[in-house]
Design goal:
Blueprint: H1 3-18, H2 29-37, H3 52-61, H4 110-128, H5 132-145, H6 150-162, H7 166-179, H8 184-196, H9 200-214, H10 217-270, E1 277-280, H11 283-295, E2 300-305, H12 310-325, E3 330-335, H13 340-345, E4 353-358, E5 361-367, H14 371-382
Parallel strand pairs: 1-3, 2-3
Antiparallel strand pairs: 2-4, 4-5
Length: about 400
Amino acid sequence: MDAKKIEELKQFVASCKQNPSILRNPSLVFFKNFLKSLGAQIPPYTNSGKNDGDHLHEEYFDSEKPDASRDHKLDEDIIESDVELDNSDVVEPDNDPLEKMGDPSVEVTEENQEAAQASKAKAMEAISEGNLDGAINHLTEAIVLNPKSAILYANRASVFVNLKKPNAAIRDADAALLIYPDSAKGYKARGAARAMLGLWEEAARDLHVASKLDFDEEIGVMLKKVEPNSKKIEEHRRKYERLRKEKEWRKIELERKRRQAQAEDAEAASVLKDGQVIGIHSASELKIKLNAASRTSRLAIVYYTATWCGPCRIISPVYASLAEKHPKVVFFKVNIDEVRDAAAEANVSSVPCFFFMKNGEEVDKIVGADKNSLEKKIAQHSNWKAKVVICCAVH
């Protein structure tokens, strides 16, 4: 490695010391796993500005294998943060006695219609004089006389808005819209009332409908106050809906990986023979069965031998008896003349030769027909709860 690359590596290590969270970067998973394989401990995650969704995604997808130690995090509730809204115009809900509502089943005569119009005119006059309570009384009289008039309910709803009685306004607006679904005044009054109660999304929907039916500047002014809060709430909801969907997807994915791992473990165990020496006839077969031993966390032994080797003929019966004695250890045997590529890959220069592997890595090696050393190494490595492989040759 040239001096420049060494210097860059030093700088990277220094950065990791100063800020270990760098190792949480998904692109550095290979390096973090390498450190863990050497026994290193990665400091726990500390939030440094990333949102919770990003953190959860990294924690669960930085490894291909399911990790039971992290499963409890899937059961944690997603705690939603507060949304900063402009609630300066929000009022306390009104709980006054209900105003009279008309009986829609009554027959409205021409005389009642004329009387209702007269009461409505008096209400408009009271509104112009600032007498809102008087206007409510006159509009109530008109509604009782003509309960099938949407505009009377919409007008009274508008007065209730001005009196800051949003619940009463919403009741009247609902009644107006039930009679005439395209009442712009009904939507406008209900939108304004809902805004008073802090129902920002509902208010925005009503005001947008009112604007389409019969736009006026007052609706535009109200929308400018309502829409920022409505959009904040919508974005907040979408964010946490996304997080909840991702959490559910992670549960499904984790369960899928767990089942896949169980199936692979079962398949791996099926190719291993307890208490027997397994003959290997190709390099690919050796790799498959070594992987199977690794998946089942078993000590595996592979013994390289040759038919022309005198010491091999002496140690082979011992090797077979050790396989019977240690049924949870995997014993492989490879003939170097038959499986030359496997022997070359293992750099076998003389036989008999035994390699010990842990988690797919070589941890020990014996060259020669040394029965005592072989028994000692098997006992030593099988007590590690590791995977050990002895390279063997089949003859």
